[in-house]
Amino acid sequence: MIHRYTRPEMGTLWTDEAKFQTWLEIEIYACEAQSELGLVPREALPDIRDRSDFSVERINELEKTLNHDVIAFLTNVAENVGEASRYVHLGLTSSDVVDTALAAVTRRAGLLLREGVMGLMDVIAVRAKEHKFTPMIGRTHGIHAEPMTFGLKMALWYEEMRRNLERLDRAIERISFGKISGAVGTYANIDPFVEKYVCEKMGLKPSPISTQILQRDRHAEFLSTIAIIGGSLEKFATEIRHLQKTEVLEVEEFFAKGQKGSSAMPHKRNPITCERVAGMSRLLRGYAIAGFEDQSLWHERDITHSSVERVILPDATIALDYMLAKMKNIVEKFFVYPENMLKNLNGTRGLIFSQQLLLALTKRGMLREDAYAIVQEHAMRVWKEDVHLRELAESDSRIRETLSDEDIAACFDVDRGTRHVDMIFERLGLA
Questions:
Q1: CATH number, domain at 321?
Q2: Which of 89, 174, 209, 281 could form a disulfide with 234 if both were Cys (CB 3.0 to 4.6 A apart)?
C-alpha cells in the first residue's frame, strides 16, 4: 500500500528501483573492502563502480526463469559490468545483501517518521500554550469529573509523543545493524572486515552475531513501536471525535468552505479524518503482530518472514507517515469552542465541585464517612432535580455548622482546579 497521499520521500524508499539500488551499493562497497584485502584487483574496481547498473524490467524478466530475485539482480548487473563481474558478490550470501539493505532502508524510513513525530509535537505544543488556561470539564468514564484546562489535555498529548519519540529513537538504533557474515554467520568465506566496511558506508553497525540473517526481534521492536505511536494517534483522534459530538461540541475537526459531510444530510460536519486515523491504527497493530510472528524461524533461517516483510514494513512506515501528517494538520486546524467548554462545565449544576465540598468538611473536623454521605445525598438530588449543589449546601444545617458562606463559596471556585497548570507546563518544558 503506497498511499497516494503519502510523502514522496517515504514512498520511494520502498520501490523496486530503490531496493535494487541499495543492493548495488552494498555489492560495490563489498568489492571495495575485498580489494583492500587483496581479494579483488584494484584495476577491476573502476569497471565495477562505473559499469554496475540494473534494469528493474530485466531483473523481473530473469526472475521468471531463475525464481530467485538476488540471482536475477546479480545476473543483470553482470551483463552490464562484464569480466569484472566475477568479483561481485564474492563470498557473500543473498541475505548478506538483502538484510543489510533492508536495515538501511528501514533506518531511513524511521528517520522520516522521526521528522513526522517532531512536527506533530511542535503543533501540539502551540495549541497547548494557546489554551493553557482555557477551562473545560475533565471526564472519567465519560462522566463529568472535575475542572481542568484544554491546554492540559494538549500537554498530555505532547508528553506522550515525546515518549514515542524516545521509543522511535531506540527502535531506529535497534534496526540500524547490518550483517555480512555468510551462510550461517561464521564468516567462513568472508572476512569480518568486509562487514565492518560495508556497514560503516551504509550508516549501520555490524551485528555482534548473526546467522544467515539478522534476528527478527529487531524488526518486531520497530513494528511494535510504530503500532504504539499509531495507538497514540488513535487516542488523540478518538478524543477529538468525542469532543465533536453534537451535544458536546467543544472541539471540531476543520471543515473547509465547500466541503460536504453527507450525501443525504446537508447539515453534517463529520470528523472524517480523525476516523481515518483511528481506523488505520488497526492496520499498524496487525503489522506488529505479523512482526512478532516472524521472530521464530527454523534453525539459522528460513524464508517465512521474507514474504511478510515485503508487505508489512513498507505498509507500516508509509501508513504511519501518512497518519502523522494528517494528525498534524488536524491539530493545527481544529476549531476550539471555549464558550461551549464553559457551558458544559457549568451544565451539571455544581456537581463537579463535590470533592472540594467533601474535603472542606473533613478538613474542618467532620468524619469523612459522614461528610461523604451528606455531599452524596445532595449530589443525587442534583442529578434528579433542577437544583444547584451550592444551593443545597447553603441550606443544609449540618454543613452550615461546619462551613461559613465564604468556605462554601470557595468550594465552587473553578480556579482551584487550575492553580498548578504553570507548574505542569514548566515540568514539561512548555512554559
A1: 1.20.200.10
A2: 281
Catalytic, out of 55, 85, 141, 296: 141
Q: pLDDT tens digits for 202-249? A: 999 999 999 999 999 999 999 999 999 999 999 999 999 999 999 999
In whole angstroms, what is the distance from residue 17 CA to residue 238 CA? Answer: 38
Q: What CATH number corresponds to the domain at position 407?
A: 1.10.40.30
For this structure, is 262 an active site residue? Answer: yes
Q: Which of 68, 131, 210, 262 is catalytic?
A: 262
DSSP letter for each residue of 29-80: HHHHHHHHTTSS-GGGHHHHHHH----HHHHHHHHHHH--HHHHHHHHHHHH
Distances (CA, A) of 93 to 28, 106, 166, 195, 297: 15, 20, 35, 12, 18
Nearest to 115 by CA among 158, 159, 165, 154: 165
141 is catalytic: yes
Same domain, 3 and 128: no
Measured at the CA of 352, the angle between CA 350 and CA 354, to 5 degrees, comes to 85
CA gap 32, 202 in Å, rounded = 13
Grid coordinates belonging to 183: 551462510
**Contact in structure between 158 and 121 (CB atoms under 8 Å):** yes
Q: Which of 21, 23, 73, 83 is nearest to 47 (CA)?
A: 83
Pairing label, strands 177-178, 205-206: parallel
The whole domain housing 21 covers 1-90
Q: pTM for this one?
A: 0.94
- Cα–Cα distance, 25 to 201 (Å, whole number): 9
pLDDT tens-digit series, residues 48-103 = 999 999 999 999 999 999 999 999 999 999 999 999 999 999 999 999 999 999 99
